């Protein structure tokens, strides 16, 4: 499979959850170090977010990384350097994002990492960390979220955007109660 075929297969990859994998933190740590090695002067902080950052949580086996920058202007300035560093993205998709820039790494037709470049300590930064931390702190909440994810993965198997959007109400309710 050539790189273009691998990318297309990764883009079209269905929503498929797997049980928690104890190697996910190490995979995050390796990407954290790789990003800071290249962008140490530009990234104010790098955090592991998403379901792979919650011990015991089933997840799509994609490491979600959130990188904090000083401004969206800095995120835009890093756009091409991040692409040159092994990530891919859709310019059209990012044009619709006002609060972040999104990138993906892939290998062998599968997504391996998602990189969300956001304003450090901005609203999105705080929300993503608050949600992750709420799931880490509360096993009952984490169990409810895992059940919802399984249900949504089954009903939105071929539609990643619908899967993500369908989790929105749950995430919003957790964030509202954590304020």
Automatic annotation (TrEMBL):
<dbReference type="Pfam" id="PF04229">
    <property type="entry name" value="GrpB"/>
</dbReference>
<dbReference type="InterPro" id="IPR043519">
    <property type="entry name" value="NT_sf"/>
</dbReference>
<dbReference type="InterPro" id="IPR007344">
    <property type="entry name" value="GrpB/CoaE"/>
</dbReference>
<protein>
    <submittedName>
        <fullName>GrpB family protein</fullName>
    </submittedName>
</protein>
């Amino acid at each position: 499979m050539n790189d273009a075929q691998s990318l297309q297969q990764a883009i079209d990859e269905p929503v498929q959850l797997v049980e928690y994998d104890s190697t996910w933190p190490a995979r995050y740590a390796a990407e954290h170090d790789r990003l800071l090695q290249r962008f140490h002067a530009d990234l104010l902080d790098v955090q592991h977010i998403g379901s792979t950052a919650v011990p015991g949580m089933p997840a799509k086996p994609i490491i979600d990384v959130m990188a904090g920058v000083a401004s969206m202007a800095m995120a835009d300035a890093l756009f091409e350097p991040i692409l040159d560093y092994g990530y891919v993205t859709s310019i059209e998709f990012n044009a619709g994002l006002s609060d972040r820039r999104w990138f993906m790494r892939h290998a062998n037709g599968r997504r391996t990492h998602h990189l969300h470049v956001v304003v450090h300590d901005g609203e999105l930064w705080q929300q993503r960390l608050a949600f992750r931390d709420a799931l880490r702190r509360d096993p009952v909440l984490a169990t409810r979220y895992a059940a919802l994810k399984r249900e949504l993965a089954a009903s939105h198997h071929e539609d990643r955007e619908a899967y993500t959007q369908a989790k929105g109400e749950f995430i919003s309710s957790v964030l509202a109660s954590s304020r």
